[in-house]
Amino acid sequence: MNKTHKILRLPSTLLLLIFVLLWIPVGCSPAEKNLTLVKAEQAYNKGNYTEVISLVEQVLKKKPDALPALQLKTRAMVALSRIADALDHQSRIEKKYPELAAPLLQEIILTIIKTSLKNENYFVRSAAVKAVGEMGNADLLPLIIPSMRDKEIFVRFFTVESFGQLEGPDFLKLVMASGQDPSSMVRVAAVKVLAQLEKTHSGLEINHLLATFAKDSDPTVRLLALAAMSKNGDEAAFVKIVSEIKKLPQETQVLAVSALGRSKNETAIPLIKAYSTHNDHMIRMYASEAMGVIASDAFHPELLKGLEDTDPAVRGASATSLGKLGNPQAIPLLEKHLQDESPMVRLSAAEGLKRLGQNHPIYYEKALSHPDYGVRHFAVSSLRRTWGKEGLALLRLALKDKAPRVRTAAIRAIGEMGGAESLELVRNSMKDPDLAVRTYAAGNTGRLINKIAGLALKNLKSD
């Protein structure tokens, strides 16, 4: 048996690894195309997708492994929202012509995303730009550059976030260009992307780029930029944060607490401690979260006190941050809060305990059947943050949730994993009845294939 025959006998997942998706259009030159295929392409461009399938079938009768015809048929099926048929078709082709499996799956993934990028619903367009980012392939960056001009703020926001996932040679120029966006929310996204980078990137000092945002007219943008600069070692930036805090009105003090935590500067410890006793429960909650960001043992007493706060959001944030501190002395108190009256606090306690090496899956199982979709969504996000592949069985349950956002969260959590089982789950989710969910599934199918192939991918945000 020669080497080629050995490859063709490998399981389908390994085939996808060998024929890794390069995300480069595959096809014939015009001279190689027959007349029927040309007519089919013209019909596709006119939106006559049923006609496309009819014409392509004529080509495939003569040459059933004609890749350009198979790809065009696949695109037409997706355009007709026949995703399940397209995937089943791809599976049948894989059995006869294994080498065609990856290009056809690539066609399904990219057609779903390209279609969603043009959808009139901004939530679907947002899903599309995020799906591209989550795939992690910089070659796809041109697909989402036009979304910088989308009329909806959320689409532009997620486009900038995706720039940070993809990177690539010119991504810093795109991020800096988004600093001119009229929406402060989009400019915040640009700062967050820069804040996730090392101190230098492509020979550029990131603090030099952040300094532009530190002069922004919006206090949120300024404080986040200064916090990132402080994290990178700029002490003067931290001094400016403290100066900014004094000017902030009462209703925006949460920005101050968040910035202090993101600075990761130990000088911020007494300031954050002071906020932990504030009369506003939201500020106390942000203070508890900031303690987990800096993760200093100095916060242990305040977080223990936070566990007994009258507000469940404060108790939940304190439980999570105690887990991040890594002090096993917190275990008995966290176990006590597994019986908290709030389902969010119970989950936060379970997450804190997981970080301390204690597994309590039963609380996730209960949360995933809770009538409030927000609780179910929080459970999936927590699984994603702390459980890794151990949480796959629980995430399977979430894929069946009636709320599209919960199913989306589960898909994105599974996209962080690797392996054949995860790949099959997200591939099947491309059949989901909700277009936004299908779009996320397409992106995370591509992500898992890239992960299997060894492409270096950034971790996804746990939003």
From TrEMBL:
Any one GO molecular-function label of the UniProt entry: oxidoreductase activity
SMART domains (UniProt xref): EZ_HEAT (SM00567)
InterPro entries tied to this protein: ARM-like (IPR011989), ARM-type_fold (IPR016024), HEAT_type_2 (IPR021133), PBS_lyase_HEAT (IPR004155), TPR-like_helical_dom_sf (IPR011990)
PROSITE patterns found in the cross-reference section: HEAT_REPEAT
Function description: Catalyzes the hydroxylation of the N(6)-(4-aminobutyl)-L-lysine intermediate produced by deoxyhypusine synthase/DHPS on a critical lysine of the eukaryotic translation initiation factor 5A/eIF-5A. This is the second step of the post-translational modification of that lysine into an unusual amino acid residue named hypusine. Hypusination is unique to mature eIF-5A factor and is essential for its function.
UniProt-recorded name of the protein: HEAT repeat domain-containing protein
Lineage: unclassified sequences, metagenomes, ecological metagenomes
